[in-house]
Amino acid sequence: DVTVECDAIPTVPTVTATDNCDMTLTVSYSETSNTVVDGVGVIVREWTVTDNGGNTTTDTQTITVIDSKDPILVGVPADVTVECDAIPT
Q1: Residue 9 and residue 67: Cα distance in Å, rounded?
Q2: How far is CA 39 from the centre of its chain?
Q3: What is the pTM of this model?
Q4: Distance CA 31, CA 82 (A)
Q5: CATH of segment(s) 2-86
Q6: Contact of 3 with 17, CB cutoff 8 Å
Q7: Which residues are registered as beta bridge partners of 61?
Q8: Rg of the chain in Å (alpha carbons)
Q9: Which is it for strands 56-66 and 41-50: parallel, antiparallel or unpaired?
Q10: Own/partner long-range contacts of 44-49 (Cβ < 8 Å, ≥24 apart)
Q11: Extents of the domains making up the chain
Q12: Which of 18, 45, 52, 78 would suit a FRET pair with 64, their CA atoms being 20 to 30 Å apart?
């Protein structure tokens, strides 16, 4: 499990599997949950592999997505000093 900033969500990695008997394993992947809205939420990724003997292994990755950075104001005018009869509107 990992916690990341909203602009640093990791890509889905390539996951492989090994088995003592079956050498032709196929790993399946699904994103079982994604509640990320406006850069905050949780993503749950799941990988599953089943061998020819019917043995199954499933593993999950939970990614908690946060936004801990303050927003930045852009275009705010500079402070000015004016005479009382020249107050801008």
Answers
A1: 11
A2: 8
A3: 0.78
A4: 59
A5: 2.60.40
A6: no
A7: 45
A8: 25
A9: antiparallel
A10: 45/12, 47/15, 49/17, 49/25
A11: 2-86
A12: 18
